[in-house]
Specification:
It comes from Brevundimonas abyssalis TAR-001. With 221 residues, the chain is an alpha+beta fold. The protein is built from three helices and seven strands; from the N terminus they run ααββββαβββ.
Amino acid sequence: MLGVGLAHVALLAVLTRSQPLPPDPPLPPIEVFLVPPPEPEPEPPPPDPSPEGGGRAPAAPSVVHTPPNPPPEPPEIIAPIEQRPSPRSMSAPPPRKAPSPAWARAGRGPAQAREPARATAPARAAVRRRSSAAPPWARSRPAHPPGARSVYGRVSLSCVIRLDQYLDQCRVVSESPPGRGFGEAGLVVSRYFRFRPPTQGGRPVEGRRVVVGVDFGRPRR
């Protein structure tokens, strides 16, 4: 029996040596972060010198200057009341003559001419108002696009009238002749125009879109 037990022990030892050991598990990856070293702390400033240093003369005592008393005011002297002569009766001035009808028409001429014009443009740019069905056209010679000074052009803009009478959100509807830069020139000139906003119930309405036309030069006849 003892021999059989030793044989089993020897066989078990041989079997354990013949089996290979399991491989070691792989190590996890290592991440390295480079961190700059901390900045050195600034040196503390040197202490302020003590105000109680030797060798200084003591401060001179402050002297308070009191202003002198103001001189007494002189007594008020009342002038005697003089008897003025009664005003003479003056005749009424002669009535002025009314201006002649020709002068009155000349004076009302510019006002009537300026009343329909509800837009102002730069120098030498006249604005004329047409009927409600046609857009108002403005002549703007100085704002001609470069390269088209002697060319007549016309631009139609769709704009919104603000309460301050300026135009906003303008876009080109049509331009003639196309491709000569009159559309962009019309947008530039529209910044100087002013239109009275439409009213509703006696109050101005903001945000109403209108069509504004701009003439560059005069059409050839």
